[in-house]
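cron nightly-structures :: item 1 of 1
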Amino acid sequence: MSHKPIATVLMLAGLVSAPAWAASLAATDPSEPMPEASLLAANPPSSIESWSAGSATLVPLMAADMQSSHVTSVAAPEDIAGGAVGKPIDDVAFVKQATESGRKGVSAAREALPQLKSPELKRIAEMLVNDHSNANARLSKIAETKGWPLPGPQASVPADSGTASTDFDAKWTAEMIAGHERSLALYRAQAQSGEDKDLRKYASDTLPTIEHHLEELRSLQK
């Protein structure tokens, strides 16, 4: 039996079992560069292999991002007292602010009386001295009953005299309006959300007086 048919059969079998890219390589001139695009097109990498190849870069970035997010979430400042500020602390703070504000109002009105030229402003200044003195006395009594501290007395600062009477009157009126607006916001907050019922009642009872003062001052503002 001749060996040529057997060799021919084996060669044909080899061509059949060879990969498709091998046949294309055989048809390509050896001097031409290897068709890498053809190889990639014939054997595209799977999606899992593609993700794995880039994971060396993605994983460090993801880890850095997670670490940054963690630091941001735990870096929020905590309450110094170790918990939420309670309403009794708010009540004590109100007593301090309201007392200081009331004392300044009485002092500013009393010291301005000799310098004010407008009869209406003089009348309002006298009203402020009387009303704020009464409110301060009532607030001090509540604080003493509760055992809350009161701010110490402060040295009075003489009111600045203007170069002209109208300048002083206008300046004093503007200062009194600004002070009463701050007091109005302070007393409203205490009347609505204060913890101590006696202090809430005091704030509610004093609010109409502050509102009346503010209305009178605004009506004379030039």
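cron nightly-structures :: done
The mean pLDDT is 72.
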